[in-house]
Task: inverse folding
């Protein structure tokens, strides 16, 4: 972890030192694009050395946060502070921030070595030091044997590793990752997630990772922040946010399938002004259970199955079971919700009760 420097000038382009673990403090950040409000007074703190994942529906403002921290866009109102320094007047190339994009953004006419060398050359790093940085980054991400290839000679996973290595070479205080794994296949996403975690543990630098993939958000983040409507709805340790969503927005978004939500309680019990929720894994098959359903579909996922069911009153409930549930479409079942795992929300405000 890195302490703030005393007496830092807010306009000092070296306010955040390269290679340190920087704190990001976002205060009342607002950004509009025409009539669209991307961020609406957003407040967020990313701790030094933390890996924070940002999740939320499309249009929630996740990528806009990264662009404002990187300096690629300017806010309408509010401030971005890196290690306590307001970076409003610091251009992107003078911020100790590296951004990794989904589309890699590699120079197609340069080899991997040339792509990695481009940044140090711009910063006038001595060639011997630049070569050392390139070797170190290439070794960390297992791309040493790719240094003389061009981008079109590599797979998507290899190109993404090169993009990550290019960020490493810059030795930033903050890494901003904008859905860097979205275009990879399922197996590559798993292995590259492991690479990211290893890099984070080794370097101890601050990372902000935007993703639509809930598995990434839950497994990568020291904390997860859920955005919606340009604001942070909840931020906390991933399991805590999953187990105790603060409102209906978070309850609906986190989880696959999402939480079952029944206005008025209905088959799950409750008062008319309360929405009652239960996770699919917290509905247990029980011959004496109080909830009777008809199975409409069985989704087999190999290691588990999801039963899509309907109650007689039309309420639909998703149920997570083991890999071989032994039921089929049209079967009648009884379910018992775990009483200790029911969630209650105010139907009007959406807030947790």
Result:
């Amino acid at each position: 972890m890195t302490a703030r420097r005393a007496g830092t000038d807010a306009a000092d382009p070296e306010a955040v030192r390269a290679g340190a673990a920087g704190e990001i403090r976002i205060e009342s950040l607002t950004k509009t694009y025409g009539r669209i409000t991307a961020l609406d007074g957003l407040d967020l703190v990313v701790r030094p050395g933390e890996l924070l994942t940002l999740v939320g529906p499309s249009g929630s403002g996740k990528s806009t946060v990264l662009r404002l921290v990187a300096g690629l866009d300017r806010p309408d109102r509010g401030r971005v502070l890196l290690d306590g320094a307001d970076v409003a007047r610091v251009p992107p190339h003078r911020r100790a921030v590296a951004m990794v994009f989904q589309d890699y953004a590699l120079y197609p006419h340069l080899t991997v070595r040339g792509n990695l060398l481009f940044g140090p050359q711009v910063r006038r790093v001595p060639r011997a030091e630049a070569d050392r940085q390139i070797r170190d980054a290439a070794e960390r991400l297992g791309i040493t044997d790719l240094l003389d290839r061009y981008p079109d000679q590599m797979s998507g996973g290899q190109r993404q590793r090169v993009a990550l290595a290019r960020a490493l070479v810059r030795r930033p205080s903050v890494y901003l990752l904008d859905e860097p794994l979205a275009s990879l296949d399922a197996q590559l996403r798993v292995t590259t997630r492991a690479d990211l975690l290893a890099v984070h543990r080794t370097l101890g630098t601050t990372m902000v990772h935007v993703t639509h993939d809930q598995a990434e958000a839950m497994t990568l983040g020291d904390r997860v922040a859920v955005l919606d409507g340009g604001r942070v709805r909840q931020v906390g340790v991933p399991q805590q946010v999953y187990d105790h969503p603060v409102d209906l927005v978070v309850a609906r978004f986190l989880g696959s399938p999402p939480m079952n939500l029944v206005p008025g309680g209905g088959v799950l019990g409750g008062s008319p002004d309360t929405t009652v929720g239960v996770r699919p894994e917290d509905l247990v098959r029980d011959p004496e259970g109080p909830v009777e359903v008809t199975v409409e579909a069985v989704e087999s996922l190999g290691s588990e199955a999801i039963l899509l069911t309907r109650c007689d009153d039309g309420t639909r409930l998703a149920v997570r079971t083991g890999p071989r549930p032994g039921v089929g479409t049209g079967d009648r079942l009884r379910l018992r919700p775990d009483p200790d795992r029911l969630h209650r929300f105010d139907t009007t405000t959406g807030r947790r009760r």
Q: What stands out?
A: The chain is about 25% helix and 30% strand.
